[in-house]
Amino acid sequence: MNQITNQKLKSIIYSLGERKSVLTETEILAIGANQVQIEKLVDSGVLYPSAKGIYMPENADFQTWHSFVEVAVSFPKAVVCLASALRFHGITTQLPGEVWIALPEGSSYPQDSSLPVKVVYMPESIYEQGIETHIIEGIPVKIYNIPKTIVDCFDFASEIGLDVALEAVEETWRTARCEMDEIMEYAKNRNFDLATKTDFDEAVTNPESIYIFI
Prior knowledge:
Elements (H helix, E strand, L loop, with lengths): L5 H12 L5 E2 H7 L3 H9 L3 E5 L2 E4 L8 H9 L4 E2 L1 H8 L9 E6 L12 E6 L1 H4 L3 E6 L2 E6 L1 H10 L1 H4 L1 H14 L4 H7 L7 H12 L9
Parallel strand pairs: 5-6
Antiparallel strand pairs: 1-3, 2-3, 4-5, 7-8
Helix pairs in contact: 5-7, 7-9, 7-10
């Protein structure tokens, strides 16, 4: 491929920035750019290095969930989960400082990543359940749906806190975001310990009384 001119490259970057907020180094090289040109675009402010191997065009529109976009582009298998998914769905008062993501067991997560993430690993059969794809800033981002997320919160209560799971059930019931039966369906194949199963059953069966416990 012939090397693209700097002016043409800049024009393409701006055009892409109108449609999505993040570009990978691979995408930019595929346009016909080289590493020197990328460095010049960074020096001139046309591109901002967001994380390892990804850049933000200066004209891109950044929104509330931009950190989700960075994670989705950097780690295609990542699914936003737990407190981060609760926040996206508007059923928690939590403000997680990191993006919680799920990966299938056996996957590896690069230790040199500069992105603020918390990783949990799930068996493949559970990892694949309840995935929704939301287009954020022009990028497809995988996020677990509400009932799956709530079940996950009980499963990982030791990491995020039982109060977070209980609050999510109460808020979901109060705002009628999904049926309690949907939540119970996702819990069928979970191996909750006795205490967690008791808390889960009580919460989903009597969501109107959860405020007593949190």
